Amino acid sequence: MPRGRYSLHDPHDHTPLAEEHFQCATGPSGWRYVSQLITPAGDHHGSVDLALDELGRPIRLELHAANWQVRGAAIDGVTWVRTDPTGIHATEGNVRAHAFTGTSPAFLVATARLLRLTPSGSATRVRLVAFTDPVLAPRTVDQSWALLNTEAHATDNGPLTVDEYQVTALDTGEQHTVHISGDVVLAAPGIELEDLETPPSVFP
After folding, report:
1. pLDDT of residue 153
2. Between 146 and which of 12, 30, 123, 199 could a Cys-Cys bridge form, CB atoms 3.0 to 4.6 Å apart?
3. Vertex 36, ends 4 and 45: CA angle to 5°?
4. What is the pLDDT of residues 82-104, one digit of tens each?
5. Residue 83 DSSP SS3
6. pLDDT digits (tens, 9 = 90+) for 2-31
7. Which domain of life is it from (predicted)?
8. Could you give the CA distance from residue 49 to residue 32 in angstroms, rounded to a whole number?
9. CA–CA dist 122, 182 (Å, integer)
């Protein structure tokens, strides 16, 4: 069960945004990731609870940020309910998309798990619903993912397999690289792995 800490920052000007203290685990029914976010000032900033089935589909998502809340799952595409800070108003959304995304590294692992790419020059298109900070506003985004390379790196705990993905935002053409090992993001724009107590899990 990997447990550790990511630092999140603005990928453009590197302003620190939060620290994400996480733990995740694989199981016979899929994968679960839970985390708490702490601001640079030390205040509680939100939380993430994401569960995937064995095919990588989101069977449960719960996000909290600035007293906003989102609960969602893969139903008729993806469906979610977003609740305002007062708890009085709730709005439901549904989009013909494959999964969810957001600022948490969990979503990068989830998308990679959903696509299960093999190293090749071809890219796979995916439609995602992104919940953007600070009020978890939903936005539909189209990306393409390609697995460029898979390498095994020697460590004290044995070989560590690292997948290198190229992710392209199809609306802007902007490209970036994501490095993932098992269920842990090693590097991505705006994300740095600061601490990892146990090695990444290996998906069956």
Report:
1. 84
2. 123
3. 135
4. 999 888 889 999 999 999 999 99
5. strand
6. 999 999 999 889 999 999 999 999 988 899
7. Bacteria
8. 7
9. 22
Which are the contacts of 27, defined by CB distance < 8 A and separation ≥ 6? none
Task: Quickly count: other Cβ atoms within 10 Å of residue 170's Cβ.
Answer: 14
Query: Do the beta carbons of residue 152 and residue 164 sit within 8 Å?
Result: no
Considering only CA atoms, which of 124, 107, 80 is closest in space to residue 183? 107
pLDDT digits (tens, 9 = 90+) for 170-184: 999 999 999 999 999
Place of tokens 């705006």: 190
Residues 100 and 132: their CA atoms lie apart, in Å, by 11
| The residue to which tokens 């989101």 are assigned | 58
What are the residues facing 97 on neighbouring strands?
Answer: none
Q: Residue 161 corresponds to which tokens in the numbers above?
A: 């397999």
Best CA proximity match to 140, nearest among 130, 150, 149: 130
**Cβ contacts of 39 within 8 Å, gap of 6 or more:** 17, 18, 45
For residue 199, give both structure tokens. Answer: 């090695």
Q: Which amino acid is at 167?
A: V
Round to whole Å and give the CA distance between 173 and 169.
5
Please enumerate in sequence order all residues whose Cβ is within 8 A of that of 172, keeping only pairs 6 or more positions apart, or say none. Answer: none
The 10 Å CB-count burial string (b at 16+, else e) for 134-151 is eebebeebebebbbeeee
